[in-house]
Amino acid sequence: MYKMVAFDMDGTIGNTYPAFFRSIQLAMKDCFGKECTIEEISLYLGINDLGIVKSLAGDKWEKVFDDYVKYYDTITDPSPKLFRGMKECVLELKSKGIKLALITGKHPVTCNITLKKFGLEGAFDIIKTGAEDRNIKNVSMSSSVAEVGLNKSECCYIGDDLTDIYESEKAGIVCYSAAWSKNSEEIEELERVNPGRVFYKPQEFIDFILSKLN
Predict the structure, then answer these.
(1) CA neighbours closer than 13 Å in the CB half-sphere of residue 184
(2) The whole model's pTM is what?
């Protein structure tokens, strides 16, 4: 029986990547006169937004980060999109008394902006954001379990990326994979690395968790 479920944000709760990439591109263009590519930004995925901006903008990072946050907060095309049914699923788990954690690589500022846009402020009992120099999800998972006084066997994580699986393994926590935003090639890889733990719709995952309560 799971007493806490921890969620990834990007690609699991919502599709925030298009807004994230575009906001960084616009901020970089404002400062340097040209946009960076999605490929250049993607090289640094795993660290938080601030770390990515520092890696791209060098000593101009403060201006670029401020502009990036402004763009991310106001951008409408593309805007961060909550996956259909996800809000209801999260709130359903909460109504059953399950502790909810959000463990994301985002910076605290953009994490809060995203939760506000999704109408999920106050939904999570614990929120852990990323570091600017490395992926710390395994540390965040372990500390979240300790904070609520549970055993690791009573907690699980749901994320969309292969790194989520590896970080969960480091923390000794079961990871389930969210495939609802993935293409066929990515799904095949998730199934290979995390067999029997891949879900294709948010409600399927929630129904699975709730079945463990009975």
Answers:
(1) 0
(2) 0.94
pLDDT at residue 214, rounded to an integer: 60
For residue 48 the two structure tokens come to 């938080």
Phi, psi of 178 (to 5 degrees): -90, 110
Nearest Cα neighbor of 8 from 149, 133, 148, 135 is 135
DSSP, collapsed to helix, strand or coil, labels residue 133 as: coil
- The total domain count for the chain is 2
Q: What is the pLDDT of residues 91-126, one digit of tens each?
A: 999 999 999 999 999 999 999 999 999 999 999 999
Mapped onto helix, strand or coil, the DSSP state of residue 198 is strand
CA–CA gap between residue 135 and residue 133 (Å, rounded): 7
The domain spanning residue 128 has which CATH number? 3.40.50.1000
Q: What is the pLDDT of residue 145?
A: 96
- Could you tell me the residue range of the domain that residue 68 belongs to? 17-74
- Compute the distance between CA of residue 180 and CA of residue 44 in angstroms, rounded to an integer: 24
Q: How far apart are CA 199 and CA 197, in angstroms?
A: 7
